[in-house]
Structures are given as C-alpha cells and as structure tokens.
Amino acid sequence: MLERLNQAMEHIESRLDQAIEVDELARIAATSEYHLRRMFSALAGMPLSEYIRRRRLTVAGAEVLTGSATLLDIAVRHGYGSGEAFARAFRAMHGVGPGEARRTGAALSSQSRMAFRLTIEGSSSMRYRVVDKPAFAVAGPKARVPLVHAGPNQAIIDFVRSIDPQTLEGLRELSDQEPRGIVAVCDDLDPSRAEGTELDYYHGVITAGEGSLAVPAGTWAVFTTSGPAPQAIQELWRDVFTEWFPSNPYRSRTGPEILRVRMSADNTEAEAELWLPVEPEHA
Description:
Elements: H1 2-14, H2 22-29, H3 33-44, H4 48-66, H5 71-77, H6 83-94, H7 98-104, E1 128-133, E2 136-139, E3 142-146, H8 154-161, H9 165-172, E4 183-187, E5 198-207, E6 213-215, E7 218-228, H10 231-247, E8 250-252, E9 257-263, E10 269-280
Antiparallel strand pairs: 1-7, 2-5, 2-6, 3-5, 4-5, 4-9, 7-10, 8-10, 9-10
Helix pairs in contact: 1-2, 3-10, 4-7, 5-6
C-alpha cells in the first residue's frame, strides 16, 4: 500500500503545473478516493488538497524569486485564475506577497516533498475485530460543527453541555445494540478533511428503531484501547491509519465514524471503542 501511495506522490510532483485529479491518484494508489484522502490525512497530518496547494506554492515561490517569468504567468501555470487569487494564496503560505518577495528577495516557506515509510515495531499489537452489521439508526441530537484536527473541539464541547441530562437518560433506554450507551458519531465530513470544514456531529445511541441518521448494513472494523485521557484516544486514531490500514487488506468506506468512551471516576483514564466503516481492499 505505501509503495503505491509513494507512486501517487511522484505523480503529484510530475503535474504540479497541471490539473491533478484525485481519482487518478486513487487509481495509482490502487484504492478508493475516500480511503486515499483518509489515509493521506492520517499519515501526513494535513489534507491531500492542502499538500498539493503547498507544494505548488513552494515551486511557485522559487519561480517568483528567480524573476524568469511574470507573476501572472506563474499564477496561471500553477492553476490560479487571476493574479489576485495567486497573491492571496501566496501571502497565506509565505507571509508576503509575490511582488514584494521578488523586489526584496524575502525568505519564503517551503513544503518538502513527502514520501512514506512503514516503521515496524514488534513490541505492541492492536486489538480489533471486524463486524458485519445490519442496518441501524443513530438516535440523538445533531449539530453542524467545524473539523478540528488537534486539541479540543469547543463547538462539540458546547453542544454536548447544552443537552438536557433527561434527554440523555431517555436516549440510553433506546440503546439496543453495539456499541451500547451514549456514543459520538461524525458524519458527512468534507472530502478534503481540511481544518475548519464542517461535519454532522450526533450525540446519541445506536438503535434498531428510528433515529436521526439511518445507516445501511455494512462491515465495520472495531478498535479498542484504554489509557490516559485524551492521549489514548488520540493515539488510537493515529495507529489505526498509520499501522492497521497499511498492514491489513481493508480500506475505509463512506459512512459515519462512531466513538464510545467510558471515563474513570476522576476523568484521567479512558476506555474507548472506535467503529469505522470498512470494505475489503479489492472490493
């Protein structure tokens, strides 16, 4: 898997001055567009679209400093429809406009080329199971919240705090299948998974009855962990995409992501169960 992913990275480098289609990158990586975006984001720490943008602006920055082409020519070559759009993107990455950078020879930022390597450590194993689950529903209140890659998501915290405790007690009575109890469900994420894009967040239960979100039958990979909070949960997400997916014949598929967490009495330790929709790699 990582070898094919590196081939996709080479394809990006060869087409920085041309249109780059994600479906073509997915074909090279021998996976789906959805899984490619998920895998890249987990491994690289940024969305695929952001990496391509930063690589283009890195190359464009070098061209701006050499002074061998007009700024408009550079902008068009790297996919910007106007000098103004190019200048905004250039300033967002480099902290200075292209015209000023050329005049002053300003120091610019650089996004290094990425290549992926699998580091194998035999001292630990990951606990997981694969479950074929019939259709179910998510019952509970929903909020549209921004995606936050690191640190607390204040929008989710405020939303959960606003839910009446009696509402949660009523929902617990509807929980009739795994994962049982109150769960956090994320759905309808932007394909780019860029910081600040929005998603649907449900705080509720999984039920065979009616609910706010209907989920079709499918296969799920279920991962469990325990340890200090929130580090154990954050490390679980990281390990699933950097270790489990590259080592197992599955890829993620479109669907909600479900997290069940049980905290210790002093809120310092957590037991977590993460449900991710998957399908065989060569389905």
